[in-house]
Design a protein that fits this description.
By secondary structure, this protein is an alpha+beta fold. It has three helices and nine strands; from the N terminus they run ββαβαββαββββ. The strands form three sheets. The protein has a four-stranded mixed β-sheet with strand order 4-9-8-6. The chain has a three-stranded antiparallel β-sheet with strand order 2-1-3, covered by helices on one side.
């Protein structure tokens, strides 16, 4: 089934792209949420009329993603945690903790955009990936240090 995307979907494409998806995915997810419309002749004609505006929004989104990636590249997020034996953390550091520390530094990023394979459970420095735009990620340095008691 061919659809025209009205919103950017990381796994499919950007706004204005014509994509082929399975009918169930379109019928049960994309169409009811207003994320896409059927690629009919009328909708294709409307897409052609709006192509210039869509391209300018895409360009602005890419520029914003590049700016955010550059900003994140120069930041070190320091998180203090209580530690036990062998420098193992009590609990763990999650994407929510990292997002909270970024918010304290004035950068508002949704925790869902911070990519952690598993929660951090040891001290030290890590490089963490952050989704900054459509198929664009940035690396963020996260430093876990022991809490001085």
């Amino acid at each position: 089934m061919e659809l025209i995307l009205k919103e950017t979907v990381d796994t499919l494409g950007e706004v204005g792209d014509i994509v082929k998806v399975k009918p169930g995915y379109a019928r049960n997810y994309l169409l009811p949420r207003g994320i896409a419309v059927a690629a009919t002749q009328g909708n294709r004609a409307m897409l052609d009329r709006q192509k210039e505006a869509i391209e300018s929004r895409r360009k602005e989104a890419r520029q914003a993603a590049d700016a955010l990636a550059a900003k994140l590249g120069g930041i070190i997020v320091t998180i203090t945690q209580r530690v036990g034996e062998e420098n193992r953390l009590y609990g763990s550091v999650t994407s929510a903790d990292i997002a909270e520390k970024l918010a304290e530094q004035g950068i508002d990023i949704d925790r869902k955009k911070i990519i952690l394979d598993e929660p951090i459970k040891t001290l030290g420095e890590r490089m963490v990936s952050v989704k900054v735009g459509y198929q664009a990620t940035a690396e963020l340095k996260v430093e876990i240090i022991p809490l001085a008691e």
